[in-house]
Amino acid sequence: MTHADRAPFGARLTDVVAERGPLCVGIDPHPGLLTQWGLPDDANGLEQFALTCVDALAGEIAVLKPQSAFFERYGSKGVAVLERVIAESQQAGAIVLLDVKRGDIGSTMAAYAAAYLTDGSPLAADAITLSPYLGFGSLEPAFQAAEKSGRGVFVLALTSNPEASDVQRALNGGRSIAQTVVDAAAERNAGITPIGGIGLVVGATIGTLGVDLDSLNGPVLVPGFGAQGGTLSDIRTLFGKSLRSVLPTTSRGVLRAGPDVFALRSEALRTRDAIVSAAGHH
Length: 282
Ligand SMILES: O=C(O)c1cc(=O)[nH]c(=O)n1[C@@H]1O[C@H](COP(=O)(O)O)[C@@H](O)[C@H]1O
Hints:
Order of helices and strands: HEHHEHHEHEHEHEEHEEHEHH
Family: Belongs to the OMP decarboxylase family. Type 2 subfamily.
CATH architecture: Alpha-Beta Barrel
Bound molecules: orotidine-5'-monophosphate
Helix content: 40-55%
EC number: 4.1.1.23
Structural class: alpha/beta
InterPro entries: Aldolase_TIM, OMPdecase_AS, OMPdecase_type-2, OMPdeCOase_dom, RibuloseP-bd_barrel
Number of helices: 12
Shape: globular
Protein name: Orotidine 5'-phosphate decarboxylase
Oligomer: single chain
CATH class: Alpha Beta
Organism: Kibdelosporangium philippinense
């Protein structure tokens, strides 16, 4: 598929979530998980792990989120596995959100956009994660490449780690940094139906939301439930009426059910069903 016939990301995400339910599963091949699955901590073990995840999940789960670092640590062989994970997951109908958390000066950002958000690149995914630490505006080349090709981005706003609040909750002219990220994303998503392609990342573990997401008009990726201690009830409390655009994501919480393909798939489906009933979705 080329950018000419790919629908905008917000529409594609909305459709796949309507069909498959609101869940993203992270493909995070931790060395400890490889061991638990009886696999060697090398590129062959990585390949078996990652392709088992694709086999179990890509035909059923709306979004898969491979975490790049766990592939990069095996060098070029690991990156080759990541390329297969992206291509084979897309073929099975999943949206692939490549978790790379990029952010750099504009001209270098253009090179990241060419690598991850442009047709013809072997690492092009449907969306990537971005860090706004160099300023939201520095991410512009990624926004443009994504918009042009029916792809999306998820910008870190309130991350799930305990160190996050020093920076993200700091005030800038009376608004928190996180709120400035929300507002800048909202401005770019305004008027797009059903939703815009600039998503945000807001952790399930953050305690209180403290930002106003009402005008975002974009998806919210919510990591941190499961292995990091966040619960579905935390998600419901945090997002209340904006719950419809929330996409919970979990990695270890599902991956620990492997290596059996059926056990892995049923744990993912069980998680998805729990989200659907907690949210009163669909
Ligand atoms: O962008 C992310 O995906 C992300 C943002 C965040 O605030 N917290 C967070 O945990 N993540 C990622 O989400 C995944 C969480 O994995 P588990 O804790 O195993 O569910 C990891 O790949 C993290 O890198």
